[in-house]
Amino acid sequence: MFIDSELEFCDGETLSGTGIAVKKGDHIDLNATSDLTEHDLGSGEPLYLVLNVTTAFSGGTSVKIDLRSGDADTLTGGGGTFDIHYTTGTIVAADYGDLTGRTIIALPKNVFKYRQYLGIFVSTSGAVTGGVADAFLTKDVSNWTSTATRVPATDPAS
Questions:
Q1: What is the arithmetic mean of pLDDT over 26-48?
Q2: Number of domains in the chain
């Protein structure tokens, strides 16, 4: 499967930090107004958020990862209004292992209301380290594999 770079939020992005609440990686500009605008991001087909944590989190107290849309590209209340479309919830240090590996989340099918900017927002408590991840949107998760080049070895182009 190919990953569209326009639908990629993080590629080997470090999501950790000390007491942070910040957008990580890139965002998608949905070209909407600041109000909740209806978007069919999957053009009538299911669309999935893939969060692939390749290096485990460690240290600190907790981590929370959200998929947010907001009026401002910072995805924070200080820069406008935002909505959370998916959240891991607060994961405490003892459960960091639950975040390691691939998590696939089906986004609402068909028309759903999003604000202008869509991206990944991370909050940590304490000095959290590690937490390197890829995050992107895709229509087809059944054939997705994580490789160095993201092209299966059987592909003649690799």
A1: 75
A2: 1
